[in-house]
Structures are given as C-alpha cells and as structure tokens.
Amino acid sequence: MDCRYCHNGVETSSLAGLPATEVCMTCHSQLFTNADMLAPVRASLASGKPIEWQRVNTVPDFVFFNHAIHIDKGIACETCHGEVDQMPLTMRAHTLSMEWCLGCHRNPGPNLRPPKDVFLMHWRPPADIDEIRRQLIGMLDIHPETMTDCYVCHR
Ligand code: HEC
Ligand code: HEC
Ligand code: HEC
Ligand code: HEC
Ligand code: HEC
C-alpha cells in the first residue's frame, strides 16, 4: 500500500500523521472482520475513542522538523525510517540525533532520489545515479552551504 493512504500529511505538512480508525475500516469492515489482532480497531470504532498508537520517532520540541520539505527535495521515507514494510513492530531505524541530521545536511547528494521514487521501499539506484544526483542538486534548488546553520533546525 502507498504510504500516503495512511500518512496523508507527509507531502503537505510538518507531520506525516497517523490514520483514523475509519481508514482501517474501509477494508476491515469486510476483510478479517473477526481477527483477534483487529479487536482494538473494532473497539475504537465502537467507542469512538481513537487508538493510542505508541510513537517511536520523535525529536525534542526545540528541534524544528518538517516532512514536506524532505519529500519535495528527494529524500525517501526509507532513507530516514528504514524498511518499515519488513518490520512486524515498527521501530526507529536511526538515532534522529543532531549528528545524524547533520551527516546528511553536510552532504545531501548521495542520499537524493528522483522525487517520484521517494515512497518506494527496496529502491535500487540506476547505473547513472551519480549523474542524476548532480543534476538533482540544481533542479531541486538544494543549498548544502546553508543547511548546517543552527537556525535551520533551531528557530
Ligand atoms: C494501512 C495504513 C498504513 C500504511 C499504508 C502505512 N502505514 Fe505507517 N503506520 C500506520 C500505523 C497505524 C502506524 C502506527 C502503528 C505503528 O507504529 O506500528 C504507522 C507507523 C509508521 C511509522 C512509525 C511512526 C512512529 O514514529 O511511531 C513510520 C515511520 C511509518 N509508519 C512509515 C510508513 C511508510 C514509509 C509507509 C509506506 C511504505 C507506511 N508507513 C504505510 C499505518 C500505515
Ligand atoms: C486497502 C485495504 C486495507 C486497509 C485500509 C487496511 N488493511 Fe489491514 N489488511 C488488508 C489486507 C488485504 C490484509 C491481509 C494481508 C495478508 O494476508 O497478507 C490485511 C491484514 C491486516 C492484519 C492482519 C490480520 C490477521 O489476523 O492476520 C491486521 C492486524 C491489519 N490488517 C490491521 C490494519 C489496521 C490497524 C489498519 C488501519 C491502520 C488497516 N489494517 C488498514 C487490507 C487493508
Ligand atoms: C529526513 C528524514 C525523514 C524522512 C525523509 C521521512 N521522515 Fe518520517 N519522521 C522523521 C522524523 C525526524 C520524525 C519525528 C518528527 C517529530 O518528532 O516531530 C518522523 C516521524 C514520522 C511519523 C510519526 C508521526 C508523525 O507525523 O510525526 C510517521 C508516521 C512518519 N514519520 C512517516 C514518514 C513517511 C510515510 C515518510 C515518507 C513519505 C517519511 N516519514 C519521511 C524523519 C523523516
Ligand atoms: C538523508 C538526508 C537528510 C536527513 C537525514 C535530514 N535532512 Fe533535513 N533536509 C535535507 C535536504 C536535502 C533538505 C533541503 C535543503 C535545501 O532545500 O537546501 C533539508 C531541509 C531541512 C529543513 C528545511 C530548511 C529550510 O530551508 O527551511 C529542515 C528544518 C530540516 N531539513 C531539518 C532536519 C532535521 C531536524 C533532521 C534530523 C532529525 C533532518 N533534517 C535530517 C536532507 C536531510
Ligand atoms: C539539521 C538539523 C540541526 C542543525 C543544523 C543543528 N541542530 Fe542542534 N539539534 C538537532 C537535533 C535533532 C537535536 C536533538 C538531538 C537529540 O534529541 O538527541 C539537537 C540538539 C541540540 C542541542 C541540545 C543538545 C543536548 O545535549 O541536549 C543544542 C545545544 C544544539 N542542538 C545546538 C546547535 C547549534 C549551536 C547548532 C549550529 C552550530 C545546531 N544545533 C545545528 C538538529 C540540528
């Protein structure tokens, strides 16, 4: 399934967002309607109380982060979150520490993809990827020379 079906803020807002119970029920009112694993989803629908998903990725309040800009500039979900489609329980794939952010902000080139491919899992770069990445820096208007300034992430 496309990530945006459930995380529908990811292209337009700072938050990716988590799906409402009704999103699950578009399919599960017909599929696996009695599965034990889906009991909390049925209970949530019946009571109108949202499911309390356990967050695994967070940065402190004093850090400014925005999903939409990364998606626009060719950084994939997989690059920051790992292969979530292979995780029986969602877990944090990277530290999300300042050093981790800076590691990419100092030199984003090797992490870029054509923006149309950012939602793909298990992406394999084409043979001419180095040339594509050189072009993307210009086409996407990326400025590594200012990306490590403190105010970018602390406003
Ligand atoms: C059917 C709906 C659905 C789809 C499709 C979906 N997700 Fe999720 N995702 C969820 C739900 C519900 C959670 C919260 C439960 C959990 O963490 O396991 C979640 C959690 C996550 C988290 C962890 C959030 C956190 O910090 O706690 C990440 C990262 C994530 N999804 C990425 C993705 C990516 C990338 C894709 C596309 C490849 C995707 N998801 C597709 C429903 C979905
Ligand atoms: C577009 C349709 C669709 C949506 C929306 C959807 N699912 Fe599913 N779900 C499926 C399908 C299809 C399967 C069976 C997959 C398989 O057997 O490989 C499944 C399987 C499951 C299972 C495993 C059931 C079992 O007993 O093995 C769980 C749990 C589940 N979904 C939870 C959720 C939750 C929670 C949401 C909302 C965040 C959700 N699903 C949204 C289609 C959907
Ligand atoms: C540049 C790295 C990066 C990329 C790319 C990225 N994320 Fe995230 N994601 C984060 C960070 C950092 C957080 C924690 C944000 C916070 O605490 O405000 C997060 C949090 C989340 C969450 C938890 C809920 C929320 O809204 O914060 C979900 C779900 C999620 N990401 C899904 C995705 C999906 C789907 C994609 C691809 C379309 C994606 N992310 C791309 C770094 C990234
Ligand atoms: C894998 C690469 C990568 C990682 C990891 C990453 N970023 Fe970025 N980030 C980028 C790129 C590329 C841009 C776009 C820069 C530009 O347009 O010049 C960007 C832009 C931003 C911007 C917007 C700057 C503006 O112009 O307003 C913020 C804020 C930001 N990142 C915060 C973070 C934080 C916080 C983290 C760590 C939690 C992080 N990023 C991790 C690649 C990354
Ligand atoms: C690309 C994003 C990014 C940039 C640029 C950045 N930081 Fe940070 N910074 C972070 C993140 C993410 C954290 C939170 C780390 C954590 O939770 O461990 C952080 C944490 C901090 C902290 C708290 C450290 C602690 O131990 O609690 C300080 C102080 C700080 N940054 C100062 C700076 C200064 C000064 C600059 C400029 C020289 C800077 N940062 C540039 C992302 C960034």
UniProtKB/TrEMBL annotation:
InterPro entries: Multihaem_cyt_sf. CDD domains: Cytochrom_C3. Gene3D superfamilies: Cytochrome C3 (3.90.10.10). SUPFAM superfamilies: Multiheme cytochromes (SSF48695). This is Cytochrome c3 family protein.
